[in-house]
């Protein structure tokens, strides 16, 4: 994907439950709220981003499965969400069968890249919500993306998990997408009363320097409640600490992108 006007960002971390989907939904909403045309691509068979944005599994006639299987183009899969300016290509459970279904296909890691190349340029930002695995779906995301945004939960072993992700990113750069960049690391579920959280955040900043976003996403109950109301936290409770943090993250991301610092 070479369209420079459209920034494609994969949200990836093979560790489960670190805030990839929460970040995809709420960062996408915050970017749309400041006028960006945003597409969220749900590449996780769990389909949490789709459900969290009000698209139940019964309303996903075409999904990212069809996109990667080569059976539908992007515009056919995309649906509007309740957030103006934020569209979604929803996921379906059969995504998990693609690993075996496409095993003999030489272009199996480039399917999403091709689909976005053909139909992605109408968006300013494309966010790809990856599953918690370094599988064919995540490899499609990393091949299609300009950059990777890594949510990092402030907990013990968080940094160890990053080593594996970074070596996968290196391999993808060498074999599939030589311009892939690290967009940054976002610290999530930060609890300022927890000393371990402070320690992990300090270690991350020391090891990774300016790659770590200044904005930290706090642990906030509104962020975890919102998906059960099928809406982003920014609609559910606009002034909650979680919503405000994602608005700051959107501003910081745009600032860094315009600055060319990542
Ligand atoms: P998976 O790897 O399973 O796809 P994920 O990395 O996408 O998970 P999320 O689904 O975003 O992670 O978050 C995991 C759980 O933690 C969810 O129940 C979510 O509502 C909750 N959660 C995420 N971020 C926060 C936060 N900042 N404060 C409170 N709860 C949060
Ligand atoms: Mg998820």
What does this structure look like?
With 262 residues, this protein is α/β, with parallel strands linked by helices. It has one domain (7-259): P-loop containing nucleotide triphosphate hydrolases (Rossmann fold, 3-Layer(aba) Sandwich), CATH 3.40.50. 42% of the residues lie in helices and 17% in strands. It is built from 12 helices and 8 strands. It has an 8-stranded mixed sheet, with helices on both faces. β6, α8 (158-175) and β7 form a beta-alpha-beta unit. α6 packs parallel to α7 (136-144). It is globular, with a radius of gyration of 17 Å. The relative contact order is 0.19. The model has no long low-confidence stretch (mean pLDDT 94). It binds adenosine-5'-triphosphate and magnesium ion.
List key phrases describing it.
262 residues, alpha/beta, binds magnesium ion, binds adenosine-5'-triphosphate, Rossmann fold, 12 helices
What are the SSEs and their pairings?
Blueprint: E1 7-11, H1 20-33, E2 38-42, H2 48-52, H3 64-69, H4 74-77, E3 79-80, E4 86-89, H5 98-101, H6 111-119, E5 125-129, H7 136-144, E6 147-153, H8 158-175, E7 181-190, H9 195-208, E8 212-218, H10 221-225, H11 233-236, H12 241-259
Parallel strand pairs: 1-5, 1-6, 2-4, 2-5, 6-7, 7-8
Antiparallel strand pairs: 3-4
Helix pairs in contact: 1-12, 6-7
Bound molecules: adenosine-5'-triphosphate and magnesium ion (MG).
The site of adenosine-5'-triphosphate has 20 residues, from helix 1, strand 7 and helix 10.
